[in-house]
Amino acid sequence: MSAEGARRKLKALLAVIDDKAATEEERATARRLVARFKAKLTQEGVPQGDWSDRVFRFGRALRRVKETTAPPPSLETGSAKAAFRLGRALRQAAKKINEP
Questions:
Q1: In this structure, how many other beta carbons lie within 10 angstroms of the beta carbon of residue 30?
Q2: Which of 6, 20, 23, 86 is the most buried (most CB within 10 A)?
Q3: CA distance 48 to 18
Q4: Between 3-18 and 24-44, two packed helices, what is the crossing angle to 10 degrees?
Q5: 89 versus 53: which is more confidently predicted?
Q6: How far apart are CA 36 and CA 51, in angstroms?
C-alpha cells in the first residue's frame, strides 16, 4: 500500500469516528481498525511524514538493487562492478516497466 493510500484509509476511518450520524458500533469498529492499522504500520517500520516516506522507500530500493545486482567475483575493479550493477538495475527496471 502506498503512503497516499494509507493516509486516505486513516482519513476515512477518522471521518467515521467523527461522524455524528454513525452508530456507536461503527465508531468502535473504526477505532479498532485505526489502532490495528497503526500497529501494522509501526510493525512494518514505515515512517510517518511526507519527505521521510520517500527517503525511506528510496533507501530500501537502493538496498534491494545492491543485493540483487551483486557482480560475480571475477570482476575486481570498481568501475567494472559499478557498470555491471548499473546494467543489471536498468534491465530489471525495463522489465518492470514492460509488465502489464
A1: 19
A2: 6
A3: 22
A4: 150
A5: 89
A6: 24
Contacts 24+ apart (CB under 8 A), 1-6: 3/46, 3/50, 3/53, 6/37, 6/41, 6/46
What's the rounded Cα separation, in Å, for the pair 99 and 44? 27
Cβ neighbors of 19 (< 8 A, separation 6 or more) are 26, 27
Any idea what DSSP says for residue 6? H
Band of the pLDDT at 73, cuts 50, 70, 90? Answer: low
Among 43, 13, 15, 19, CA closest to 31 = 13
In this prediction, residue 71 carries a pLDDT of 58
- DSSP letter (8 states) at residue 45: T
> Are 33 and 13 contacting, i.e. CB atoms less than 8 angstroms apart?
yes
Q: Give CA–CA dist 36/52, Å, rounded.
A: 22
Can you tell me the distance from the alpha carbon of 29 to that of 35, in angstroms, rounded to the nearest whole number? 10
